[in-house]
């Protein structure tokens, strides 16, 4: 190959991030029996399924090519992002333009592809299922359990990746008693206030073993070098292939080989819909912001809290 031809090929560390991967194959056992026949990703936040918020975030960050990693009993996710012609015709015939727009919105958001994860073998295995789709390009990973209100975090992560190469994780500072719920990072400061260099990662450590209080939340921008590492990563905690273990190895790998991991510190709001209490809090908070609901809901909430306090007394 000539030198001129070689220079025209984009290098892996400078290629733009254009694709997003959304793992959605989990069983959702914490929400049984609601998730017996309904994917947890389709549980509504007021009147929109949680997964749609995630797709909207990716699109707002400039990622219009999305791959959903699904499994059995996830067909309703595909249906949600597809056209519903009979429903649309019925709404159009009734002149319900607002509802018609909301129904069409999900199918017009992005180009959504699907691949099945044959068995639930962890986040690392779910990411491996995306290899054929993303190829040798960097890509974002968005977990549906975490709702990030703004696309600024993902945009910033993509910017850091394009400036420095390697992989990027989103980090949030948590209380010491919460570190065992997350993968935690050992970090070093950089010349940028919101960016750190990740030197080590520990999956769900005890508070005594945690390298810091900086926890990885559900946003990643991965270099394609993660794929060969995942292929040789043995099952870790819970018998699953952990993405954290692969990123830990990449943190110690030369940048020339796609290594290096940086963290972007979350400065906005993040909502964890992966457990019941946080899910309910998220629904209530999102509802209270809605002009069509707040005037009725907020007075009821105040009265409800007062009644609960009187009952305790």
Automatic annotation (TrEMBL):
Similarity-based family: Belongs to the UDPGP type 2 family.
Protein name according to UniProt: UTP--glucose-1-phosphate uridylyltransferase
Top EC group: transferase
One Pfam family, short name: NTP_transferase
Keyword list, A-Z: Nucleotidyltransferase, Transferase
PANTHER family xref list: UTP--GLUCOSE-1-PHOSPHATE URIDYLYLTRANSFERASE
Catalytic reactions on record: alpha-D-glucose 1-phosphate + UTP + H(+) = UDP-alpha-D-glucose + diphosphate
Gene Ontology terms, MF aspect: UTP:glucose-1-phosphate uridylyltransferase activity
Keyword Nucleotidyltransferase in record: yes
EC number(s) per entry: 2.7.7.9
Domain Nucleotidyl transferase: 19-281
UniProt-listed InterPro entries: GalU_uridylyltTrfase_bac/arc (IPR005771), NTP_transferase_dom (IPR005835), Nucleotide-diphossugar_trans (IPR029044)
Protein origin, superkingdom: Bacteria
């Amino acid at each position: 190959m000539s030198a001129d031809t070689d220079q025209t090929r984009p290098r892996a560390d400078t290629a733009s991030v254009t694709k997003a991967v959304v793992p959605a194959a989990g069983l959702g056992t914490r929400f049984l029996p609601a998730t017996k026949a309904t994917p947890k990703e389709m549980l509504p936040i007021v009147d929109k399924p949680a997964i749609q918020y995630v797709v909207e975030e990716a699109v707002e960050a400039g990622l219009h090519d999305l791959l959903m990693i699904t499994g059995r009993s996830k067909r309703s996710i595909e249906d949600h992002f597809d056209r519903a012609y009979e429903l649309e015709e019925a709404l159009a015939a009734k002149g319900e333009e607002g509802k018609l727009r909301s129904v069409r919105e999900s199918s017009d958001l992005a180009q959504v592809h699907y691949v099945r994860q044959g068995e639930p073998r962890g986040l690392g295995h779910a990411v491996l299922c995306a290899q054929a789709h993303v190829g040798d390009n960097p890509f974002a990973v968005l977990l549906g359990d975490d709702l990030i209100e703004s696309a600024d975090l993902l945009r910033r992560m993509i910017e850091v990746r394009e400036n420095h190469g390697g992989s990027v994780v989103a980090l949030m500072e948590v209380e010491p008693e919460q570190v065992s719920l997350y993968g935690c990072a050992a970090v070093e400061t950089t010349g940028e206030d919101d960016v750190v260099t990740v030197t080590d990662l520990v999956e769900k450590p005890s508070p005594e073993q945690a390298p810091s209080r900086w926890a990885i939340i559900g946003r990643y921008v991965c270099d394609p070098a993660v794929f060969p590492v995942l292929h040789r990563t043995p099952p870790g905690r819970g018998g699953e292939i952990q993405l954290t273990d692969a990123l830990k190895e990449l943190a110690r790998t030369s940048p020339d080989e796609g290594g290096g991991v940086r963290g972007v510190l979350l400065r906005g709001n993040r909502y964890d819909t992966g457990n019941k209490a946080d899910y309910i809090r998220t629904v209530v908070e999102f509802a209270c912001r809605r002009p069509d609901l707040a005037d009725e809901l907020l007075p009821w909430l105040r009265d409800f809290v007062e009644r609960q306090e009187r009952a305790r007394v």
